[in-house]
């Protein structure tokens, strides 16, 4: 860190700290530190009392007089600063505060300065080839060394949490760049160790795994690179995520880098040696600001330079209109034209137009360019093609055929001489072109798009508004044509800010209209492809664009498009759109869009499709999603029988699932689709909210882990509001019940209780008895977490009676298990054991997740009763079964219980091992479970005299409990920490 005024320096990149010279400052208690941290994050700026209060105080428990508390914090900080003649730096301005410490006295500024210098060095390296990459790496290493632990560790308040996330992300971004340079430069002996450590610490950070794969590959260990990829796919797919970057890296490794070949000498003799023979130079001018595509250019250049090829070199580049195929082809053709001394031919085949160029006419044009008189050109197309092949024989020619309609149009134009090379561009895959090497051109990388925007609009403007530039590139879908149009608009109007253009492009309704400048626009380019579709293809493109989801599986697409059509017919239709590059297929039977194509298709749908037909399509999709989700739930044996559900009628059979993993994977990977369909039902009065609520309920029965519960809770809130507006009480009651369950799983118990109260008031009538019992069941869970055990016993007893009346053994057994835990917490151990045993009997009548949960409840009661041997046996059985059913939260809870049983039995090392094994999963699953495990871990360490680690674990547990407002648990941990001190 750099010294500042009055010799002060402050640390935000770790636990908050301050020094005058080498003398540490007394910064007070944590809330006062949070106040100081907020001022340090904005040096020299006035922060209002309202802003400071919102950032420093906890949302759920603000002080009665926040301004007075802030004034107290300021007074105490000034008192400390006065010791060093620096009290004047903390200024009160209109009820707010400003800290006039220079920015360079704060370590964050030092970090930003070093990273900016590293970026400049990399930029200079890119522009001048000055070998600045080692210096950039050293600067990044210095920046990373400034981090002394978790930023603002343990500080309360929303601002500290937000800044902590931001600074952690900045560190990871710098670490990614630094490790990437380590791999690239190849001179770091610790590179593999550093990458492995980064992957372990940040398992969801795909870039670290990609770099680890690349380093293994470059170290001559390809098997280990593939093993990293295989392990990552299992991990990500288990979390419902894809790993596109790792798949791309694996493809790169398998391809390896092409060997650069030298240009072969032209063949001697033939027409090229004849005096007076014209040498065509037909290439149009290349684009001067061509940007990016280095890997593709290197690959194609190498292929065009193959010495003595066995046949004509044919390179077929395909991609969406506007993706830069022609620009790439021209850039490449100019780069290699010296390798083709007998000329370069260029022909626009007009393949995207209504009437593509006839091959016979194209042959006549080529023959004329090669010096054949018009009177000598045969009328018969076959004879014309034969003369063309004879004419080019012996010549070393480059033929650029732009915008081909299909392979049939190109075949007659292929030369027979292997000394020639053909470069073809097309909006579709030319899969029937024999011997061709195919290259699919996709949207640009983000850095390339920003570089192109800077080349056109001016680098100073991009540097001045980097966030707006990134927003423009995103709105353009990283499509080169769209980026070029946006850049041209900026260049034509120097007074327009990037923020203004970004705001104009943010509206999907007007985005395509905004992407136009003079005679260049994106929409007409896309329209050329759309206008050549038949009616079925055009309708499919429009309807598939409607769901707000990145991609659709084949079966869902079939439901959306045509009811009762076979999947083979649907696949064939969609693959024609993939072939035309209007749809993308990232994996087998999965289909998605480029962003701008989706916008275009939606706008065409708005003009061509009636609202009724759109509603009908979504109704089919909702029906399919619900039927499939029910099948998945039944296969996964999720612990909620359908007798307690509000079950809407479906007509679709849905997908069948044969294993628990298969069913759970479907529910995880299709959560975005389900979200989109439910959200649409909330907006469209023509769609049945009962089905949407049922689908939401099924989602909630599977997706209650930390990563998904918040999303499901928010969606349930939207659905409940829509149902209230439409007067659909049953759908509203179910939505509020689901929302309460998700809030419970994320430890927001007070809010869960409020939702349950509203749901309970809606559960009137015998047909809603099952739902009422579910509401009571969740109320019991909530009461237990709030330690209101008598209240929990009351509502759970009522719920169990209703379930018994309905004949639902599983639900009754689970309710009895929860009831038994509350009875044990009240000291009624004999009654609790009997209740838990009865619950386990009811849930154990068939092999299901409910059977495992029944045994888990019994283990908890046995532990509370002190029967530790039997408790351990039941908990270990439950954990094995819960792992099989993919119930991560309960699996973690069972692991925590095992650690507690070991600790109670005096087996501290076993407790330590059990807690450490479970903690990584708990960090991903539940803050509450993480806190309990940390507490157990801390207590085990304390008994083993590992005092420092004990304090650290307990302090983290305390912070977690306070964050979740679990005050009783926090108080218990505080007492343990006090005893340690």
TrEMBL record:
Q: Would you tell me the protein name for this molecule? A: DNA-binding SARP family transcriptional activator
Q: What is the lineage of its organism?
A: Bacteria, Bacillati, Actinomycetota, Actinomycetes, Kitasatosporales
Q: Which UniProt keywords apply?
A: DNA-binding, Transcription, Transcription regulation, Two-component regulatory system
Region described as Disordered: 257-279
Family from the record: Belongs to the AfsR/DnrI/RedD regulatory family.
Signal peptide residues on this chain, from the entry's feature table: none
- Residue ranges: DNA binding: 1-101
State one Pfam family annotation: BTAD
Q: Which organism is it from?
A: Kitasatospora kifunensis (Streptomyces kifunensis)
